[in-house]
Specification:
36% strand; alpha+beta; 154 residues; two-stranded antiparallel ribbon
Length: 154
Amino acid sequence: MAKESLKTIAKNKKAYHDYFVEESMEAGIELRGTEVKSVRRGQVNLKDSWCSIDGGELQVNGMHISPYDHGNIFNQDPMRVRRLLMHKREIMRLFGLVKQDGYSLIPLSIYLKGSLVKVQVGLCKGKKLYDKRADMAARAAKRDIERALKERNR
């Protein structure tokens, strides 16, 4: 069986800073017109985006897909709400978790899987300020260790 290639288009680094990612899942995304060309060119921004469930449908809000240069009248609104494609039972399970347990649904990345555009959605809990500081300190310590090892191996 051939292994499908994954090409990451954009990552939501802020999500990993602001949230604990408890679980992640893959969803398709409904794109219109020239949006696919813009995504393939990497003109996507996931910062400050979030997912909501409205009328039994999973939607991504706040995702910016820049208009395609040569799209003229076929370009869509860059900030429009886009539908994510998942099974109904998965959406209902997520809806229950978000309502009862105080989780948030956050898009973590958008990538190409073969010829399809996919979104990685995370089931996340918000971090407190002290958690964010601890993560920053751990990253700085790891960076210092890697730098020291690199210097030592020269």
